[in-house]
Amino acid sequence: MSSEVIELDVRRMLCPMPVIKLQNCIEQQAPGTRVEITCTDPGVMSDIPAWCRINGHSIISSHELEGEFIILVEKSAHGG
C-alpha cells in the first residue's frame, strides 16, 4: 500500500469538474494512494462520496474550512 498523498486543487471549479478531475487523478495512482482534494463548490460534499461508493474508493475524511471543502480519498485495490 502506498502512503503517498496527492494534493488536488480544484478551487473555483463547479460540478461536475471536481469529480472529473478526481477521477482522472485516481486512475493514474496505485491502490492505497490518497488524494486530498480541495474544492469551493459545496456540492462536492455529496458528489464525491457518491462517486467513491460507485467506484469502490474510501473517504478517509472530509471537512469544511473557511469556505473550502477538503476531502481525503483513498484509492481501493479493486476500484477503477
Description:
- By secondary structure, this protein is of the alpha+beta class.
- The protein has a single domain, classed as Translation Initiation Factor IF3, CATH 3.30.110.
- Helices cover 29% and strands 32% of the residues.
- It has two helices and four strands, in the order βαβαββ.
- A four-stranded mixed sheet has the order 1-2-4-3, with helices on one face.
- Helix 1 (17-27) links the parallel strand 1 and strand 2 (34-39).
- The chain is globular, with a radius of gyration of 11 Å.
- The mean pLDDT is 94.
User: Could you tell me the number of beta strands?
Assistant: 4
Number of domains: 1
Distance between the termini: 16 Å
Query: Largest sheet, if any?
Result: 4 strands, mixed
Assign a percent range to the helix content: 25-40%
Q: What portion of the residues fall into strands of 2 or more residues?
A: 25-35%
Level-2 CATH architecture? 2-Layer Sandwich
CATH topology: Translation Initiation Factor IF3
How many helical elements? 2
Strand adjacency order, main sheet: 1-2-4-3
The gyration radius over C-alpha positions equals 11 Å
Supply the CATH class.
Alpha Beta
- Uncertain ranges: none
The CATH superfamily bears the name: TusA-like domain
The mean pLDDT is: 94
Structural class: alpha+beta
Shape: globular
Order of helices and strands: EHEHEE
